[in-house]
Please model this.
Amino acid sequence: MFTKQPHHHQSWATKNANQSPVKMMIDSGLADMARLSIKEIAALAGLCEQSIRNKIKTGEFPAADYRSGPRCVRWSAGVVRQWLESTRTPTEQ
Model:
């Protein structure tokens, strides 16, 4: 018979609760070729989706590098990571 063993470790979310999403993404070693949606990028950047769209229009954020249809666009995680690193202030590094 199996008995449930108590977990003596914290969950990933609990351990990293004090880190910013940007720092977690950079530290996690997320594959550069992973595809991110605008919703995911907005969450990582702490911005709304419309702010990301506005930054794309003004050239402050790179255009999507992957399209699988007219309404399905994605960004490579490496491109997003570089942009996030370039926008961080020295105190966040």
Notes: Residues 7-15 have pLDDT under 50 and may be disordered. The beta strands are 35-36, 66-69, 72-76.
